[in-house]
Amino acid sequence: MAGFTGLLQADGYAGFAGLYNPARTKPGPIVEVACWAHCRRKFHDVWEATKSPVAKEALDRIAAVYAIEEKARFAPAAERVEHRRETAPLLDKFFGWAKATVAKLSGKLEFAKAFRYTIDRREALTRFVTDGRLEADNNVAENAMRGIALGRKNYLFRGSDAGGERTPSGATEGGGWSWSWSQLSDLG
User: pLDDT, tens digit, for every residue of 24-57?
Assistant: First the structure.
């Protein structure tokens, strides 16, 4: 990431914080674009564990944003921004409601943590509304990487080092991805 500048859509991994530092001048700033799917997942986990009506309300409010995104999907950037004009007031209401709700919760609850995670990322979570190049979440990228993440563990069990080396190179047939065995081992 040392040579990267621009927009980066990711979850709230603390290791990225230094990348978003506004004082970063070489080669230039990286602007955080947060992921609504990660926020939604935190509320969903609370809903699954507790069946809390407030968690359900959070999920419903987020679903309303995604309903608008469904209309905007695959549209040209300017058209996406036009669709998203409906999103801005929903997000304003969501964040107002979220701040009022988290104030009533014990700070130690996972539910309060879900709210704080989302509230703390408000600016980065709303960037997609006015920039038609951006998505509400990074699901497309994560889904594209899933095969690599799952595969890197499976390649350890190909029977031999040679089998492990051939498997990822075989994925390049037909224009797929290309990784060497040493690169996969470095991934962890």
Answer: 888 888 999 999 999 999 999 999 999 999 999 9
Count of CB atoms situated within 10 Å of the CB of 141? 13
Phi, psi of 19 (to 5 degrees): -70, -30
Amino acid at 13: Y
Beta bridge partners of 7: 31
**What crossing angle do the helices spanning 53-72 and 36-50 adopt, rounded to 10°?**
150
Of 127, 97, 117, residue with least CA distance to 43? 117
Query: Cα–Cα distance between 45 and 114 in angstroms, integer?
Result: 9
- The end-to-end CA distance of the chain, in Å, is 18
Burial of 38 (0-12, 13-18, 19+ CB in 10 A): buried
